[in-house]
Amino acid sequence: MNTLRTNTMRLLVFAIALSILTLGGCSSTPRITLSPSEEPPSHDYLIGPGDSINIIVWHNPEVSMSVPVRPDGKITTPLVEDLPAMGKTSTHLARDIEKALAIYIQDPIVTVIVTGFVGPYTEQIRVIGEAGKPQALHYNNGMSLLDVMITVGGITPFAAGNKASIIRNIDGKTQHVAVRLDDLIEDGDISANIPVRPGDILVIPESFF
């Protein structure tokens, strides 16, 4: 029964990966190849649902506190209700809180510290298919394909690693970037290690042989 359930789940995951590739235009869009020397994009961390926010209001400890970012992307603090936080940097959010508090406090000075990192859904890196632990990851500056594979526990014995693809938005168009996971993980070929970008979807298909 457990074996049947495992095989059924594996087929379901592969079907999802295949549908994503098909809907993304895999049949008409050739896979492109990137160099490891490609410069990773500069990126400021943006706050997302599930993040923990530490708000410090100078000389006002009664309104200084840690709050979570709700699933709707907003936060609630004393004197400030339903303030949008998703998609903002910590500095941007601090200025917005200062404006909201200025109604009650003279010249408030606010510092925002992010203590839990999830990030907006649109910037998460999603790994699906034959990964050790398929999951969504928050993006870190300078993150590479190898970093992603370490986090998800590599690939399963059933993976077709060299047929994997990254679905990526490039200049407003969906592209399929060819990746060589077998070469990178099994052979230690560093030339197969490329920078990843916020919003990448790594699809690892199952091998039929």
Notes on the structure:
- The protein is of the alpha+beta class and 209 residues long.
- It folds into 2 domains: 2-41 and 121-204, Outer membrane lipoprotein wza fold like; 52-116, wza like domain (wza like fold, 2-Layer Sandwich), CATH 3.30.1950.
- It has 4 helices and 11 strands.
- The protein has helices at residues 2-23, 90-101, 145-151, 181-185; strands at 31-32, 52-57, 65-68, 74-77, 80-84, 110-116, 125-129, 135-137, 165-170, 173-178, 201-204.
- The strands form 3 sheets. A 6-stranded mixed sheet has the order 1-10-9-11-7-8. The chain has a 3-stranded antiparallel sheet with strand order 3-2-6, covered by helices on one side.
- It is elongated.
- It starts with a helix and ends in a 5-residue tail after the last strand.
Give a quick precis of the structure.
The chain has about 210 residues and is α+β, with helices and mostly antiparallel strands.
Shape: elongated
Low-pLDDT ranges: 2-9, 20-28
**Main sheet makeup:** 6 strands, mixed
Provide the domain count. Answer: 2
Portion in strands? 15-25%
CATH topology of the largest domain: Outer membrane lipoprotein wza fold like
Give the overall pLDDT as a whole number.
86
- Element pattern in H and E: HEEEEEHEEEHEEHE
CATH superfamily of the largest domain, by name, is Outer membrane lipoprotein wza domain like
CATH class of the largest domain reads: Alpha Beta
What is the total tally of β strands? 11
Distance between the termini: 24 Å
CATH architecture descriptor name of the largest domain:
Roll
Structural class: alpha+beta
Helical segment count:
4
